[in-house]
Each structure stands twice: as structure tokens, then as C-alpha cells.
UniProtKB/TrEMBL annotation:
Enzyme Commission numbers on file: 3.6.1.63
Protein name listed in UniProt: Alpha-D-ribose 1-methylphosphonate 5-triphosphate diphosphatase
Coiled-coil spans in chain: none
Cited InterPro entries: Metal-dep_hydrolase_composite, Metal_Hydrolase, Metallo-dep_Hydrolase, PhnM
One annotated GO molecular function: hydrolase activity
Length: 390
């Protein structure tokens, strides 16, 4: 009798009788998942022995999320409530799996305000949180594939020292340049900024003016220095560099000069057009698309989609919006493969993940099975490296 260690156990799943989203076309067929990769694709409605019958539902690649603040929501479920990090990571991981996301770049803020003991203060957490994510990922505790996205807050006090805590060994995937100084970019409308910080962070309205003055002072004193440090850090890590909330063609030109490859949430048509002229991929929020407009009063994602200026969707603050938004784009464009590409192949390509984002031989067996009921996609199953996770 052979030793059990010598017996190679092949793990195989066959998903059949499905509508398969291939890179450029949708076909009826079946997909074989074997040992974590896609081993075979066959066209037709046959149901092989032992196959799972998808009953005509859609099979698409697992969703790839480049920018989500969802982890922070689990870290702070209420103002002044700090949830244990590992519990927050697990809850975040399982929630994303349940919405069809199989690869996520967890957005973690770097850059804090530590000099003030009052309401302006927000502390450092990035290094500790990244350590927890990487440890849990490497131990196999997480259901989906997690990567690090550092959100570099330009208008802060500690950005340089926090960036220095990371290096190439951390395999940071994305560094984004965040400048939330009121009066420009996302918060050109200062009233909307007041509503945001006073509503979300509990800042008294009577203290808002002092807070704005404080932030403007930080930007004037440290903004240029911090931006240069973040650009250099991305190059040091080998990470993709992203801009955030570009508003003008001039800002896009600056981003291009820094080597930016991704533009997160351009706020105007002008900026989106400038990004495409510079071959910078535009990322728009799926909640913006689903709601029919930006909650900050900026350009609508649907408008950019109609102008062929939208490349990638991000769930931003609503994980379930990613699949819903992609399906809506597929319907808007009359091309479901193109709509799904904004949340699969295109984001994977722009961050150098060449092993996922498509249903193709040899690719990671990350897939989702869903159907559309009226205007809402309903997930039936989610597979990450061939293992069902939702």
C-alpha cells in the first residue's frame, strides 16, 4: 500500500450549463476548476457527470477591488468605538466574499494628526493594521486575496515617518495621493466638507472655521514635501501610483508628471478627459453610478461612462455596489463583457496582477455565479482559487 503522502489528491469542480463571461464575448458552456486554477473551458449546454448545474446563470471572473474604505468601517463601527483589528479584518473579508469580491486592495491611511489633543486629532494605525492583514493572509485565515493600498494623506503631520515604516518586502500594491484640504478637489464646496466632517466625526459647527484654518496651514507648510515623499515611496515599494480627486487638467498634468497610472474619482469631465489624453485609467465609484450622482456634488459616473471616459469601478464605501454597478454598465453599453471588465480584467491589469481577472486557461479559479432579477444581480456562489467561499 502506498503512503498517503504519495497520493496526489486533485481538487476539481465543474461548473456547467452557464453563461460564461469571456474577455470579449459571452458564451454558453462549462468551466473546470482544478487545483486552484481554470483547467478547461468548453462551449455548449452539456452537463458532465458530477458537474454543478448553473441552470443558465452567469459565470464571471471574481471581482477585483482597488479602493475600498470598508475595513475602516469595521474598525470603527461607531464614533469613538475601536473594534479589535483581527475581528474587523475577518468581518471585512467575509463581507467582501459575500459580494463577489475575490481580490481586494485594502485602503489604509498613512499620515496622521498627532499634535492636537482635541477633535482634530487622528492617530497612526497603518503599520499595525498592515501587519495584521499580512499575517492573517499568510496564515490562510482569509477567504479572499488581500493586498495593501496606502492612502497617503498629504494634509497631515506624520506622513513621511509612516511611509518610512514600509518597504519593498511589504509588497504594497497601490499608493494614492490624497489631498483633502477643503476648498479644492473633492471638497471644492466647503459647505459639503462641513457637513461631512461635522456629521461623520462629530466636530461642532462652531469649531469648523478653526479646523479649516488648521488644515490650510498644514497644506501650506507640508503639502509639497509630503506629495514628493509619497511619490518617492511608491517607486521604492514598486507600487502603482494613483491620484485622487483630480479636478483640473493642470492637476492631471501634475499627476502624469509624477508617474500616476490610476486616477481615483476624477471630480470633473475636464479631469477625466485629461486623464484619457495622458493614458491614465479613470476609477469611478460604483455608488455614484448606482445612486445616479456623486454625494459630494461632483461629476456623475454615468456621464463619464456615456462619454467612454470610465475605465474601472470601485465599490468605495458600499461593497455590494461593485457587481451592481458593473451590471448597470453592461446594460448601459449593451455589452455585459465590457461592463464586467471594469471590475475584473481592467483593474487587475493596471496593478500588474496577470493571473486573474479573466476566465481563461491557467488563470486563478476566482469566479462568481449570479443571475439578474429585474435590475439587481443576485449572487449564487463565489469561488476563490477553486474553493467556494460564499
Amino acid at each position: 500500500m502506498r503512503n498517503k503522502r504519495d497520493v496526489h489528491m486533485t481538487k476539481e469542480t465543474i461548473l456547467a450549463n452557464a453563461k460564461i463571461i469571456l474577455p470579449d464575448v459571452v458564451i454558453p458552456g462549462s468551466v473546470v476548476l482544478r487545483d486552484g486554477v481554470i483547467a478547461d473551458i468548453a462551449e455548449g449546454t452539456a452537463l458532465p457527470k458530477g458537474a454543478i448545474d448553473c441552470e443558465g446563470r452567469t459565470l464571471a471572473p471574481g471581482l477585483v477591488e482597488l479602493h475600498t474604505d470598508n475595513l475602516e468601517r469595521h474598525m470603527k463601527p461607531r464614533p469613538k468605538v475601536d473594534w479589535p483589528h483581527r475581528a474587523a479584518i475577518i468581518a471585512h473579508d467575509r463581507e467582501l466574499a459575500g459580494t463577489g469580491i475575490t481580490t481586494v486592495f485594502d485602503a489604509i491611511r498613512v499620515g496622521s494628526i498627532v499634535s492636537d489633543d482635541g477633535r482634530k486629532r487622528y492617530g497612526k494605525y497603518a503599520r499595525d493594521m498592515a501587519d495584521e492583514i499580512l499575517m492573517m493572509r499568510d496564515s490562510g485565515a482569509l477567504a479572499i486575496s488581500h493586498h495593501i493600498h496606502l492612502r497617503a494623506e498629504i494634509c497631515s503631520e506624520t506622513l513621511e515617518e509612516e511611509l518610512a515604516e514600509f518597504g519593498p518586502d511589504d509588497k504594497v500594491g497601490i499608493v494614492s495621493l490624497m489631498d483633502h484640504t477643503p476648498g479644492q478637489r473633492q471638497f471644492r464646496d466647503v459647505q459639503k466638507f462641513e457637513d461631512y466632517v461635522c456629521g461623520k466625526n462629530g466636530l461642532p459647527r462652531e469649531d469648523f472655521g478653526d479646523y479649516v484654518t488648521f488644515l490650510h496651514g498644514l497644506q501650506e507648510r507640508l503639502g509639497a514635501k509630503h506629495e514628493a515623499a509619497a511619490v518617492a515611496a511608491a517607486a521604492h515599494y514598486g507600487a502603482a501610483l494613483a491620484s485622487h480627486d483630480d479636478t483640473t487638467a493642470e492637476q492631471v498634468a501634475t499627476s502624469h508628471g509624477h508617474g500616476v497610472r490610476l486616477a481615483e474619482f476624477p471630480t470633473t469631465r475636464e479631469a477625466a478627459e485629461a486623464c484619457h489624453a495622458q493614458e491614465i485609467a479613470t476609477i469611478m465609484g460604483a455608488p455614484n453610478l448606482v445612486r445616479g450622482g456623486s454625494h459630494s456634488g461632483n461629476v456623475a459616473a454615468k456621464e463619464l461612462a456615456e462619454l467612454d471616459l470610465l475605465d474601472i469601478l470601485s465599490s468605495d464605501y458600499v461593497p455590494a455596489a461593485l457587481l451592481l454597478g458593473a451590471v448597470q454598465l453592461g446594460e448601459l453599453w449593451g455589452d455585459m463583457a465590457r461592463g464586467l471588465a471594469t471590475v475584473t480584467r481592467t483593474p487587475a491589469h493596471h496593478v500588474g496582477l496577470t493571473d486573474r481577472g479573466e476566465i481563461a486557461l491557467g488563470m486563478r479559479a476566482d469566479l462568481i455565479e449570479f443571475e439578474v432579477m429585474k435590475d439587481a444581480p443576485i449572487l449564487r456562489s463565489v469561488y476563490a482559487m477553486g474553493k467556494r467561499v460564499a
